[in-house]
Amino acid sequence: MKRIVIYLIFVVAVAGLGALIGINNVPGDWYQSLNKPSFNPPNWIFGPVWTTLYVLIGIAGARTWLEAPSSSRMHVWFGQMALNFLWSPAFFGMESTMLGLIVIIPMLIAIIVFIGKSWTRDRISALLFLPYLAWVGFASVLNISLYLLN
User: Fold this and answer.
1) Domain boundaries, the chain
2) What are the pLDDT digits (tens) for 24-83?
3) Nearest Cα to Cα of residue 101 among 145, 50, 140
């Protein structure tokens, strides 16, 4: 029962905080006015993608917490989460593609580090982070493109 509670806490906290940050940092007129690359996805895709990713991130966080709560893997997990939650306020809130880059590049690195640290100790957590890595890699390219186009 305790394990289920830990999983619920992580998933609800990650998805809930992510939703709260998203609601408070919606793409507005500034974002709509930016020149966008041809591969810019439609706005409606971000909500479902991030909800799915936050569930996967929460599960990986709970698995890591249950196995090694004070490990370097857990510290990296919390670090990437902090960067994740900073990106929307930096990019949308501050209306800055440059600040977005300053946040998203270390976030991408932290995701890679978490996968690397988890690969031999908890392959499932590492695998749960692969879609996240793919999406943040894509988001990094999109962020760089928006910076260069504007």
Assistant:
1) 2-149
2) 988 889 999 999 999 999 989 999 999 999 999 999 999 999 999 999 999 999 999 999
3) 140
Full-model pTM: 0.95
Distance between CA atoms of residues 61 and 39, nearest Å: 31
Side chain identity, residue 86: L
Distances (CA, A) of 53 to 28, 49, 108, 149: 23, 6, 14, 28
The C-alpha angle 118, 102, 144, rounded to 5 degrees, equals: 95
Our measurement of the distance from residue 24's CA atom to the centroid of its chain's CA atoms, rounded to an integer in Å, reads 16
With the CA atoms of 28, 91, 138 and 58 taken in that order, what torsion angle do they form, in degrees rounded to the nearest 10? -100
SS3 content of the chain, % helix, strand, coil (to 5): 85, 0, 15
- Residue 18 has phi, psi (to 5 degrees) of -60, -45
Q: What is the DSSP letter of 34?
A: S
- Class level of CATH domain 2-149: mainly alpha
- The closest of 50, 48, 73 to 60, measured between CA atoms, is 73
Of the candidates 42, 7, 69, 36, which has an alpha carbon nearest to the alpha carbon of residue 147? 36
Neighbours of 23 (CB within 10 A): 9
